[in-house]
Design goal:
By secondary structure, this protein is mainly beta. It has one helix and ten strands; from the N terminus they run βββββαβββββ.
Length: about 140
């Protein structure tokens, strides 16, 4: 499946390019299309011209149609192009744009199409909590 890549960051709500152990992942979420005029929806602009990141709704920049954050974010999909850290398979997939708990950290979780193992995209600089591994066990002096 060939994923459509964004040509600029203006088209995206979310974009990241990460290295995961021996693999990598590039993920992006396109802005929602307005259901009325097919324009692009985004956060409203403040009076000084900057986007209001904390606004509780999205607006269409063409016709002014508004939808709540929850409605828009539940309808979005995250596109992921990846190289699996487990089996070295390269591929692309889509999943829902919702963070889930993965290895103790909130992540966008997708599945490798070849080995079916789950891979998580964490927030920047967050490390997953590996089960059963501690640094201070059996140390020699």
């Amino acid at each position: 499946m060939a994923l459509k890549k964004p040509s600029s960051m203006e088209e995206c709500i979310y974009f990241t390019n990460r290295i995961i152990d021996s693999g990598r992942a590039m993920a992006w979420v396109f802005r929602k299309e307005c259901p009325k005029c097919k324009g692009i929806m985004g956060k409203p602009q403040k009076k000084n011209g900057k986007l209001d990141k904390k606004a509780d709704h999205y607006v269409c920049y063409s016709c002014g149609y508004a939808e709540s954050n929850e409605q828009v974010e539940n309808s979005l999909l995250i596109n992921v192009e990846y190289k699996c850290p487990h089996c070295e398979n390269e591929g692309g997939t889509t999943t829902e744009y919702k963070r889930k708990s993965f290895e103790g950290v909130q992540s966008y979780v997708f599945e490798c199409q070849k080995c079916k193992k789950k891979i998580g995209l964490t927030k920047k600089l967050k490390e997953t909590k590996k089960k059963g591994k501690t640094d201070s066990e059996g140390g020699e002096e």
